[in-house]
Amino acid sequence: MTVTPLGVEVSCDGPAEQTDCPENAAVAARFASWTAREVRADGRAAGWSRRRRGGHLRDLCPNCGTTRQDGADRG
């Protein structure tokens, strides 16, 4: 049996730490994107952002990235 990696999916971490993304958004990766770094680059091209929240970087879709419910821009 041969195992072939299918790539990675990067999904939105929601507008707030306790809240899931209301759209269940995920980055639409290009066919050639196989690593998390490549998929996140695809997301940035589509308006996604990364913010530090709770000591970790979180991926936010364009809709959730514009909300400031959890103070994510403060640190």
Shape by Cα distribution: elongated
Number of strands: 2
Radius of gyration: 13 Å
Give the low-confidence spans. 70-75
**What fraction of residues sit in β-strands?**
5-15%
- The number of helical segments is 2
Q: What average pLDDT do the residues reach? A: 83
Helix % is 10-25%
Give a structural overview.
The protein has helices at 36-45, 62-65, and strands at residues 49-53, 56-60. Strands 1-2 form a two-stranded antiparallel sheet. Mean pLDDT is 83; it is low at 70-75. β1 (49-53) and β2 (56-60) form a beta hairpin. 19% of the residues lie in helices and 13% in strands. It contains 2 helices and 2 strands; from the N terminus they run αββα. By secondary structure, it is of the alpha+beta class. It is elongated and about 45 Å long.
